[in-house]
């Protein structure tokens, strides 16, 4: 049995919650387990042998309420100290990344190294402490230092490589984009879009295209494509295929046990959309999240076949456009609860290795909602996950990114977690600044798409996640991103080449 003791070491600490918690194996893959809290102890009855850790939302003063992982541990009767194992897991991860990034002796990293050493020394002190409460108090101080040090290490690394990319003029003119609300066609909305972004992402769920079988609704899509083409703004579209319940049309459900019929419907749907808009779209999100949202309960082989035929068809019909296969919930928490799904890294690796014809991987990064894949993580964790995706050898497109600008309606700060402080416009703006810097420092990241231009209180995944308020007033994050884009455009522009006879 794997179990952890919990000691409240901070005044006002909320009761321990297991929302979003799961057990993770030594290879980083979530494991099936039953979790329970009894008498200040977390019990993890896992269904697999071997070392494992616990991931759960944990409050760290100054860093936020974040989904953190303990070190990997063997089963034993005596419980582990939860906060001590959280800091041990963090420091082990930091040391791994310092080695990956080559930052052990890098000039200028000394202040961060000093913080890491202090956190390590406090952890050692905690290990030597026999009193359980005192041990938790010392470990909590170590965790505070380790969390800050991890993020500072990520920002230090990002600053180096972002400057290198800028100096090498490595950014294209299609780096920053935003998804649009198809129902909002006001000139003010469209002006804000052009003011801050290089391209527009048109969400095109199958449910909206063909709400009833053989009945198509193209008007909203046609209007936006016409305006974007007229204004010479590049267009990305997707997802063409998703098995999320909110994406697939209701009428398709009657064929859920007939794989061949569903496959044929997918083929015809993709062909119809790409033939209609193929000459206007420069990037297609071909298939999105079928590793996590397996509504039809297809087998692994069937999911891979859908991926292969869909990507191949788009490549055939629109050979000049980029094709992207999109991942959701990139840490794979959902797999701990549904074994009919596929861990995201396994699915991505299989797609790359199987020879599927596509141009890049996509990933969705949404935080601040109590849903698998959306519990808040910090910049260190995000940077590491991007590195793992980059190691697969394909260009990476961040197809959806978003955090809220206000706490949840019920006022529960633990509700989905938060970063450093409860969500607000200044916190959202600072998150945007640091995230874009980290993401664009990665040489394999080619584009970033923000999820909502304006707040959508009734229909948005994150109702306050827009860069504009619902009345189109710019938030601080919009201004930060606008300035960021101006700096990137300056980096894109190469200095003019002077003729040899002009050089003195």
Polypeptide structure, described:
It is a single chain. The chain has three domains: 2-162, no CATH class; 169-197 and 365-494, no CATH class; 199-358, TIM Barrel (Alpha-Beta Barrel), CATH 3.20.20. The chain starts with a strand and ends in a 12-residue tail after the last helix. Helix 4 (187-196) links the parallel strand 9 (176-179) and strand 10. The chain contains twelve helices and 17 strands. Helix 11 runs parallel beside helix 12. The chain is α/β, with parallel strands linked by helices. It has helices at residues 82-101, 110-128, 132-167, 187-196, 206-209, 219-230, 259-277, 300-317, 344-353, 379-390, 425-441, 476-492, and strands spanning 2-5, 22-25, 30-31, 33-38, 41-46, 52-60, 64-69, 80-81, 176-179, 199-203, 235-238, 283-288, 322-327, 360-366, 396-402, 418-419, 445-450. The relative contact order is 0.11. The chain is globular, with a radius of gyration of 24 Å.
Question: Could you write a compact summary of the structure shown?
Answer:
This protein has twelve helices and 17 strands.
Q: Topology, pairings included?
A:
Layout: E1 2-5, E2 22-25, E3 30-31, E4 33-38, E5 41-46, E6 52-60, E7 64-69, E8 80-81, H1 82-101, H2 110-128, H3 132-167, E9 176-179, H4 187-196, E10 199-203, H5 206-209, H6 219-230, E11 235-238, H7 259-277, E12 283-288, H8 300-317, E13 322-327, H9 344-353, E14 360-366, H10 379-390, E15 396-402, E16 418-419, H11 425-441, E17 445-450, H12 476-492
Parallel strand pairs: 1-8, 9-10, 9-17, 10-11, 11-12, 12-13, 13-14, 14-15, 15-17
Antiparallel strand pairs: 1-5, 2-3, 2-6, 4-5, 6-7, 7-16
Helix pairs in contact: 1-2, 1-3, 2-3, 3-10, 3-11, 7-8, 10-11, 11-12
